[in-house]
């Protein structure tokens, strides 16, 4: 059975379902004919946005709830055959200002969800959205899953713990689970309201508003990027097979690009915005990791997936989306 | 200055100070002339035991408190030049039954202590008691610090997160910290009341009570052991130098021994007890890691430390201690 066919009539749940990746996944699952439950806390400042499900609002079930709330999660997981676990606090900066909240959301809540599955739906399958951030500053490039986990901030630590919980619940309690370590995901429906959730959404906004992007240092640090539709396909592939259970996989893009070349490309594609190079702010430098790009061959050897959207195409689509809907993402 | 001289008049604090390693460290620090504050929650079933400071009770300050309690920790850390952070929930079995409590004590409380230091005593130095358990089942032996962190139970995950927090607070906030990944520590003042805190204390008790040790499987799994006095010296060495800041180090023993040979040796030294081989219980097999011994050369290259107590001598001293004081450790 193909991954697409697998989801027809399938009862799935997405935590963080109104957020960036979660809502794109929801759109795709609706197209595939799945029965989709979206769980989201809609905490202000986080990525959840009701506009993200515009067009499918009558084809999904939305349940506003916080993944930290155990009794709610105990109820909601019941009968859900696949759980895409994407809820999280994703700001590295916030995690250093308020580490306890980051721990509650990224660490404790994962345990709450997994305990809910263990006791109320042990036959389910959980796909956890992890992050390249857990590797910290790479020893060598590209980074494989054999690289040490060595987070440089509290957010990375809590995401690492969240990932480990999933693998242990798979191995010890038989709650099937795996983790996808995403690199830099971009595309429609990402939060643009503030710059504390990574640079890419913020760069897109500045270009759209014809403002200046400040690149830290000389912009030589390299990254890889995944267009959100490709990330969605990775989640779908992982959810539809048991060949990935109990493991963590890099999910990155094929094109590596420096910040310098990236901002140049963004300005060129959009035909607006500009950029300049500035000194590293001390607090950001302290948790910077230099260049990073991932080797995703382990995942690609296990499932039928590869990124299909090239950078230029992906950013063109991204700008097109936000040009239409910017006011839904940026307070006027 | 030698590590010994360093502690004269030094204001130190030990979390978990009434526990096994903490109390042995306290005895040594009193001898060295330090000003010692012991913080312990004295939670029943955990390792804290007032008898552990018998003989030095008038030379230390005992403050009963829970490391989870932020305002208390904010107060207690003030003015403490070195903090030995040993408080923890150490039962792997308990962590799988009640993962949230393990998270609170091993993960959240580390953040609470480090936040207390960051805001109320940023000049202090913290030495965190980590564990070989974070490595999980080894890919190769001996295990170096380059081995992946891949915990097999919730306790291992939370200890790993606790360790990472210390390193991040060192690197980002300048709260000097390091972590010692201890292998199997044994010796006087260890909890013997139940068998949920690792096998070694339990084996010692069974031998002392002239009972039968049940060895799982064929007993071929290998371990290394550290006599508690050697572990204490490792903590003292780490606390007295800045050459270890921001890193995690293996602290293991030099002799590797199979469970089979270990129990044979224990029975022989004690002149009591016996042993038999039984099938692995399923719940224990699920989190077993096979053979493990650590390479401690990174730590030994950084500080003046090596284990000095051989296994036979260490267990002879251990039996001698408990023969005198068994009723303080085992309810009659």
Helix % of chain A is 40-55%
Q: Tally the structural domains of chain A.
A: 1
Q: What's the CATH topology name of chain A?
A: Rossmann fold
Order of helices and strands of chain A: HEHEEHEHHEHEEHEEHEEHEHHH
Mind summarizing the main beta sheet of chain A? Answer: 7 strands, parallel
CATH class descriptor name of chain A: Alpha Beta
List the quaternary state of the chains: homodimer
Ends of chain A: how far apart? 47 Å
User: What spatial form of chain A do the alpha-carbon principal axes imply?
Assistant: globular
DSSP summary: helix tally of chain A: 12
The low-confidence parts of chain A are none
Structural notes for this entry:
- The structure is a homodimer of 332-residue chains.
- Chain A is 40% helix and 18% strand.
- Chain A has one domain: NAD(P)-binding Rossmann-like Domain (Rossmann fold), CATH 3.40.50.720.
- In chain A, the strands form three sheets. Chain A has a seven-stranded parallel β-sheet with strand order 3-2-1-4-5-6-10, with helices on both faces. A three-stranded mixed β-sheet of chain A has the order 7-9-11. Chain A has a two-stranded parallel ribbon with strand order 8-12.
- Chain A contains twelve helices and twelve strands.
- The A-B interface holds A 96, 99-100, 103, 107-108, 111-112, 115, 146, 148-154, 156-158, 160-161, 164-165, 167-168, 171-172, 286-287 and B 96, 99-100, 103, 107-108, 111-112, 115, 146, 148-154, 156-158, 160-161, 164-165, 167-168, 171-172, 286-287.
């Amino acid at each position: 059975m193909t991954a697409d066919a697998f989801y027809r009539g399938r009862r799935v749940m997405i935590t963080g379902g109104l957020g960036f990746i979660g809502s794109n996944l929801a759109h795709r699952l609706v197209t595939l004919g799945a029965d989709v439950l979206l769980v989201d806390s809609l905490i202000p400042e986080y990525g959840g946005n009701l506009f993200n499900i515009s067009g499918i609002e009558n084809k999904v079930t939305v349940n506003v709830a916080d993944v930290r709330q155990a009794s709610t999660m105990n109820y909601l997981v019941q009968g859900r055959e696949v759980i895409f676990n994407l809820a999280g606090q994703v700001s590295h900066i916030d995690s250093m200002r308020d580490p306890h909240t980051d721990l509650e959301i990224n660490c404790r809540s994962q345990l709450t969800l997994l305990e809910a599955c263990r006791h109320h739906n042990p036959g389910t399958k959980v796909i956890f959205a992890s992050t390249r951030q857990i590797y910290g500053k790479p020893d060598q490039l590209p980074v494989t899953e054999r690289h040490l986990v060595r987070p440089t901030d509290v957010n990375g630590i809590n995401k690492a713990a969240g990932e480990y919980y999933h693998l242990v619940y798979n191995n010890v309690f038989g709650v099937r689970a795996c983790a996808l370590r995403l690199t830099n995901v971009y595309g429609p429906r990402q939060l643009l309201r503030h710059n504390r959730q990574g640079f890419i959404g913020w760069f897109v906004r500045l270009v759209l508003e014809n403002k200046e992007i400040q690149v830290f240092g000389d912009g030589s640090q390299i990254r890889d990027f995944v267009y959100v539709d490709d990330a969605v396909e990775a989640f779908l592939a992982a959810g539809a097979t048991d060949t990935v259970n109990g493991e963590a996989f890099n999910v990155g893009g094929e094109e590596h690009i420096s910040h310098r070349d990236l901002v140049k490309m963004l300005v060129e594609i959009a035909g607006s915005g500009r950029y300049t190079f500035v000194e590293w702010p001390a607090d950001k430098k302290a948790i910077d990791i230099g260049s990073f790009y991932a080797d995703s061959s382990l995942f690609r050897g296990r499932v039928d997936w590869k990124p299909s959207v090239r950078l230029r195409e992906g950013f063109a689509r991204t700008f097109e989306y936000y040009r239409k809907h910017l006011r839904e993402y940026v307070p006027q």
